[in-house]
């Protein structure tokens, strides 16, 4: 398999800079009146351009409510949708606070790298039914701009990508079409985590197909491989002189045969903390920033369990700078440990919909990190239902931030989505 070390990625296409508005004093206009006129135009402009568990499936409405589209989402360059959302299915825009981590400056400027993370993603089951009808690029309709602007966007791909394999004996089994990958890549996703409890739902053959399909599409992957060495190997990416090592580890593995071994493929497990800790320590010697994507915890629990907190602290003690978790299918809180951030669970991003409202709430986690290993976190609140994650309106976003503040460990989220230590 082609080596995944020391890849240098090209910067993403940046949004064109806003044109400057000339200020003219004409005729009988006084200078003061002209200034007031310009300020009024500017206010109007920014008002209109502010950005606002293993699931039991239900026949939920395909249209989320209380949501808004992002500003000018980038057009898709991947597989095109065969059906466009109807005007009735497009949420009306409302004003929300713009992300402080997203600007019109070149990506990574000022000695920073910008990373974005999303939660659990599948393109199977009820989600596949929707995509077959509306097109595989449909899920990114309202969030593509948030995924494509950062330097690197990372997701947890909780499904094999295959048309073959042997279905495993477990309660929930997923399999997604290879047709889903080009739109995922076109939407801006650069790296996916495969260390989870669904990537081998169709056995070793399904996992091997997934690895091959991701390689063919140019999407980096962590957390699984043809043997132990490959499964625990990080993806290395670099931007603006900052070298980032990204790992994936899972503490939710259905059976022992799923674990990667010296001579057989599988996932990077973390029931035994020593292999992940050793891998992090090794990467720390050459990387400026170490990121861990972890799959762990109890489904639908608002709070991390002791295994999560213990592992997160061990990872940071070993040299990790940022940890982002998933699997509970609901949001969990944040913690800062020794100056490093832990996001215990981002919940679902593109997943089947059930009747539990907490599983509809998620965020796009934006991290602006520097070479001195510090990260500034900002959250974009998202309502995700029926395969269409959509930014929340301001009121609902603030309610989510308040709830996250209540369930976080020594951390808070302000009304603008900025995460800070209490």
UniProtKB/TrEMBL annotation:
Entry keywords, A to Z: Membrane, Transmembrane, Transmembrane helix
Species assigned in the record: Paenibacillus ferrarius
Transmembrane spans: 21-46
Region Disordered, residue ranges: 55-110
Species classification: Bacteria, Bacillati, Bacillota, Bacilli, Bacillales
Entry protein name: Capsule synthesis protein CapA domain-containing protein
Listed InterPro entries: Capsule_synth_CapA, CW_Biosynth-Accessory, Metallo-depent_PP-like
Gene3D superfamilies the record matches: 3.60.21.10
UniProt similarity note: Belongs to the CapA family.
Composition bias, Polar residues: 64-89
Capsule synthesis protein CapA domain location: 114-353
């Amino acid at each position: 398999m082609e080596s995944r070390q020391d890849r240098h990625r090209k910067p993403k296409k940046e949004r064109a800079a806003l044109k400057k508005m000339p200020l003219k004093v004409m005729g009988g206009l006084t200078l003061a009146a002209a200034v007031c006129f310009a300020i009024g135009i500017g206010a109007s402009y920014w008002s209109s351009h502010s950005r606002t568990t293993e699931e039991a499936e239900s026949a939920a409405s395909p249209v989320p409510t209380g949501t808004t589209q992002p500003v000018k989402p980038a057009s898709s360059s991947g597989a095109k949708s065969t059906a466009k959302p109807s005007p009735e299915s497009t949420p009306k825009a409302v004003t929300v606070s713009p992300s402080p981590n997203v600007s019109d400056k070149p990506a990574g400027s000022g000695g920073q790298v910008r990373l974005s993370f999303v939660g659990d993603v599948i393109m199977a089951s009820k989600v596949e039914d929707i995509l077959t009808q509306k097109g595989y690029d449909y899920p990114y309709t309202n969030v593509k701009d948030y995924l494509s602007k950062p330097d690197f966007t990372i997701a947890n791909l909780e499904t094999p990508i295959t048309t073959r394999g042997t279905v495993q004996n477990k309660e929930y089994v997923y399999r997604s079409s290879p047709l889903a990958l080009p739109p995922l890549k076109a939407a801006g996703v650069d790296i996916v985590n495969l260390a989870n409890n669904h990537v081998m739902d169709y056995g070793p053959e399904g996992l091997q197909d997934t690895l091959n399909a991701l390689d063919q599409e140019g999407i980096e992957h962590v957390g699984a491989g043809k043997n132990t060495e490959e499964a625990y190997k990080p993806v290395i990416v670099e931007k603006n002189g900052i070298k980032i090592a990204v790992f994936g580890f899972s503490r939710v593995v259905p059976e022992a045969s799923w674990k990667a071994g010296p001579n057989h493929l599988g996932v990077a497990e973390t029931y035994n903390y020593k292999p992940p800790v050793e891998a992090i320590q090794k990467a720390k010697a050459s990387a400026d920033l170490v990121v861990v994507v972890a799959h762990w915890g109890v489904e639908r629990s608002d709070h991390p369990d002791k295994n999560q907190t213990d592992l997160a602290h061990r990872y940071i003690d070993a040299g990790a700078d940022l940890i982002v978790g998933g699997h509970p299918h609901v949001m969990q809180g944040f913690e800062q440990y020794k100056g490093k951030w832990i996001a215990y669970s981002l919940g679902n991003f593109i997943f089947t919909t059930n009747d539990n409202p907490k599983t509809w709430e998620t965020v796009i986690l934006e991290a602006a990190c520097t070479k001195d290993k510090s990260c500034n976190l900002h959250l974009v609140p998202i309502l995700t239902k029926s395969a269409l994650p959509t930014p929340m309106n301001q009121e609902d976003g603030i309610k989510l931030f308040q709830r996250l503040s209540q369930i976080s460990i020594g951390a808070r989220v302000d009304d603008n989505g900025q995460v800070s230590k209490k």
